[in-house]
Amino acid sequence: MYHFRNDYSFGAHPRVLQALSATNLEGNPGYGEDSYSARARELIRAACGCPEAAVAFLVGGTQTNATACSFLLRPWESALCPVSGHLNGHESGAFEGTGHKILPVPADASGKISTRDLEPLVIQHRDPHLTRPGLVYLSDATENGGVYTKDELTALSDFCRANGLFLFVDGARLGCALTSPANDLALPDLARLCDAFSIGGTKNGALFGEALVFPRPALAEEFFRMQKRMGAVLAKGWLIGVQFEALFVDGLYFDLARHADEMARRLQDGLRSLGWTLWVDSPTNQVFVIVPNALLPRLDAVCTYEVWCPYDASRTVVRLVTCFQTSPADVDGLLTSLPLLPV
Amino acid sequence: MYHFRNDYSFGAHPRVLQALSATNLEGNPGYGEDSYSARARELIRAACGCPEAAVAFLVGGTQTNATACSFLLRPWESALCPVSGHLNGHESGAFEGTGHKILPVPADASGKISTRDLEPLVIQHRDPHLTRPGLVYLSDATENGGVYTKDELTALSDFCRANGLFLFVDGARLGCALTSPANDLALPDLARLCDAFSIGGTKNGALFGEALVFPRPALAEEFFRMQKRMGAVLAKGWLIGVQFEALFVDGLYFDLARHADEMARRLQDGLRSLGWTLWVDSPTNQVFVIVPNALLPRLDAVCTYEVWCPYDASRTVVRLVTCFQTSPADVDGLLTSLPLLPV
Amino acid sequence: MYHFRNDYSFGAHPRVLQALSATNLEGNPGYGEDSYSARARELIRAACGCPEAAVAFLVGGTQTNATACSFLLRPWESALCPVSGHLNGHESGAFEGTGHKILPVPADASGKISTRDLEPLVIQHRDPHLTRPGLVYLSDATENGGVYTKDELTALSDFCRANGLFLFVDGARLGCALTSPANDLALPDLARLCDAFSIGGTKNGALFGEALVFPRPALAEEFFRMQKRMGAVLAKGWLIGVQFEALFVDGLYFDLARHADEMARRLQDGLRSLGWTLWVDSPTNQVFVIVPNALLPRLDAVCTYEVWCPYDASRTVVRLVTCFQTSPADVDGLLTSLPLLPV
Amino acid sequence: MYHFRNDYSFGAHPRVLQALSATNLEGNPGYGEDSYSARARELIRAACGCPEAAVAFLVGGTQTNATACSFLLRPWESALCPVSGHLNGHESGAFEGTGHKILPVPADASGKISTRDLEPLVIQHRDPHLTRPGLVYLSDATENGGVYTKDELTALSDFCRANGLFLFVDGARLGCALTSPANDLALPDLARLCDAFSIGGTKNGALFGEALVFPRPALAEEFFRMQKRMGAVLAKGWLIGVQFEALFVDGLYFDLARHADEMARRLQDGLRSLGWTLWVDSPTNQVFVIVPNALLPRLDAVCTYEVWCPYDASRTVVRLVTCFQTSPADVDGLLTSLPLLPV
Q1: Which residues of B touch C224 (CB under 8 A)?
Q2: Do C168 and C290 share a domain, yes or no?
Q3: pLDDT in tens, D43-99
Q4: Where is the Aromatic amino acid beta-eliminating lyase/threonine aldolase domain positioned along the sequence (chains A, B, C, D) (predicted)?
Q5: Model confidence over B236-253: pLDDT tens digits?
Q6: Which domain holds residue B215?
Q7: Which among A225, A230, C40, D18 counts the fewest CB atoms within 10 Å?
Q8: CA quadruple C187, C188, C193, C196: dihedral positive or negative?
Q9: Nearest CA of chain D to the CA of B227: how many Å?
Q10: Alpha carbon distance A99, B97 (integer Å)
């Protein structure tokens, strides 16, 4: 049985687990006031080319999104978010639970939005009887596997600054975005273009943990109280620091992400060779394939996966996800279990 | 330097960490749908003598309290909570952040409340211009180290049922309560007397994790959606299941708690022998001692601790906490570093 | 200058104002505990053929929608609402401010939704990682002037009951809906088919005030506390009771609404005769007309109105609204001021 | 039957009602964009000696408090509020419903707080694990009839500014405070010392309506959206403007308040002459008298009043409130109905 259901099916990368084991009984101050968290923050600041950035550590992605976005907004402000954005579609109303409206923005097939999509909404919401859009949420990689180019993110950032909007990037899969062949962004670009962004650990080698970066620290003032108020402070906070230190000390974070992307590429190439049709051609670690419904039992028998959405009456879009633990043998094993389809 | 600042200064008990390591790269379904979580739930249900109980796993205590209490209430309902209760005093408004008022209840020196304290508030709030009290929150052990007896909890439970109030017990330190010499409650009593209670892992041998028990499963309907909405679902949910399985499989949870209590007893006896004055005589793992301010630097030099509150102009209440990792040598080492005081 | 901007440009109908004046210095208990409110409740119950209904009085429409809808939902539940529904588009996030997500439902040109639109959303949201849809919000008349037929509302009601959804009807313009020639519903139908609905006073002869009807009183339990908690209880509550008594004592409410509808019909017929194009053919008191942009200054000079939305590069949809105070002379005066257009 | 239950038992002062009648069918823009509201704002600004102040109009007191206080705070901030403050004790959790904690501040018998009461709470809450106190709420007159002196309010204002706290004054009964013999404050002092304060119309001659003043308009930016989001914008907003214009055009507001205070003084003097004991000696329009329980039926027979709280086993504190409509004959009539008590 091959694991392709998601990128959080395995625990931590062995080097990360080893770091946790080595420090387990040391005795450390709680709440992220420890030296591991301090070093992890320094490593992240350095990787971002942003020595003054504020870096907070949270446990999971939904928590990070809800906490960061509601932290940035005033009560009458809303978030512009792609219809398919995680904040809008997959978080059980966690963000609205903080009292804010989402303004859904039409997205392209890859899950990306552009200033063209944002502009009419911003103009419409000048009406003081409506919410004021206060931030743009986007994810990189997107929920459909897409990545933003530097030009695209720059245009969005310029638009946000011209319109008094914060730009927040959900980086739950940021590693796979930044190591994708389709990508030309680096962490310092994100630090320059965004007001806040997360660097996901959960889906890239950690047991759990997301780093939240505020390139301009003044914007992060009192964030700790907000985090506490959201139940989002881990008592044994060093656990996240230790993991991010292990991930960032010598580029492990990017090595793991690049590997996942490569496995997804191998899988997509293989599926195409078998005559299977991709729903989107994903440059990151999520693979979306259109499967004839009659073949779903065959798939069930060999791998875990997620049903993404119906494609048409006789076909279904299926998502297969790779991660640090996916081996070429896993990919090839899956491929050899699948039938050749007439193109 | 001896660690007495709190009971979350160390990672996991070695057997818990070992279980995490052994399962690290297995591949498991997310969100607590795995077999470890299923077994851990069964073990907890068995320990509670309550085979039908719903058991949810959350990451931390503040998160658990805010999620459980707001889950149980309607918007116009409030929580009756001891003034010194964690929900009221130590969670940065996380509970009020869900939109509910706290009605502070006077507590005794040990942090406990009784029906005598609740009754006038309940009567006053029959006025429909006020919130309706919807639940009683209490913690066992309390923030001051106190434990409820079976008679006391029964009286509170009876009062709650007679007044349409849910009874929620915050068990962040439930292990140390249940293994205390002052205790005559067992898990099945809690399951019988409460509507929901938590069993804290963070402060008793786990890296993190709280089990939330709803003895009557009908009351827990849709709790998973609530948990998700609160950002309180761990993606790699099996991590909590694995830990609680390790803790409950052969009573490790209680062994660790009993040890912590014994170390606290040893510490309190030793402090008294040295002529130091206890603020309260705690039957659990938190020790509160009145320290002449002039001696605080001496304390700083030998151990970590927490300043609890001023006692008077020249003395301070200091909290020292023991845990599974505290050894008799730690206690004795600390005691031998402290001066004899004139009684 | 003719007033067609909205249906809340004038104060109260003279008979309503007279009732307020006559009772002004009587001395009455506050908060709706007075005899006028009691009588108004009885009149509404009688009109609804629902002697046991709970009837609450609130001040305004946004307040009523946010209070009623959040009252009916648990925190993890969302509201299914037409994209163009007032709750979604015109209330500055008041509903989301209570912590709930809106699931926007595609609506037809008249602003109405059907079970066909609801079904895929309900199916999709069986996923426990998403909010549970808890109610369907719709307005009658809709924001685009449409009215639901008995068949349509019955189908929606059946769907709601089959799917565990409450059905809430925003009746800010219910008078104009029920007196429209396109309508075959009566208040007892609403009482039978809905879980809660409002009867708008503000837009139909009152200074302010909305009656909120819960046909099944058990569902309204503790609503007063909710209303208070939302800042939605008027201290001098009898002011709303007096007004609704005046409106319902001999059918004034329906007379005023019917008049407004007739004035809108007269206006639409006249506009069409002049060769102007209607955006929708509205059976109620809101008229939507497509105006060449070059003619907008002509319109500005003779009447107040609202720009609804752009139609295309050279034309704009304009809304003209009639009310109890609109006279045939107003309509004809406006029409004679407007130019004949080539069809 | 004499009406002393509260100061919202009667409608509007005849001059206010006359103004509403005179303008009833004029046709006015909604949402407070009318000329009456503009003039009322100017009159209030002039009375406050603060030509640049932002002035918003809301419907009721609880709504005004919840909207203003939550507008001024960030999510992790709390409000310091006298235990007996309306925000804490009488609003059914409306403020906590916006997601903020109240830190109750001990108050004196007259319901007033001082910097001495605030300081320890502010110091304690420097701890980043707690909420940050963001504002001080107080009411003038207080719920117990007390008024703040200029010295007292200046000290509180200085303390707030030194500690980064906003100062909000709930002026639901501000008229009776400012016209009390015990008062030495004027509106310009409030404008100088506070960040926001309300001027209550409901309890002093209006049908309803509270003016909310932000002396520094920059602080009020986007308040309209917040008001809308809270369901607190009246569609026919000119109704409040018309009333405040009538109240402020030639000092009617203060004449009515002064009259109410004088009637309360006459009542207190009379009660004392009869040997009745006052609970507090109130300088404003609320009278608190300790009534032997055996006499309550006598009171029931002659007047409406409110039971305030038990005094002891045999006596009850009763509140009697005067207003613009209370006549000397009402007071004397009540007094002659009451028995002489042995002192």
Answers
A1: 128
A2: no
A3: 999 999 999 999 999 999 999 999 999 999 999 999 999 999 999 989 999 999 999
A4: 16-291
A5: 999 999 999 999 999 999
A6: 14-251
A7: D18
A8: positive
A9: 18
A10: 10
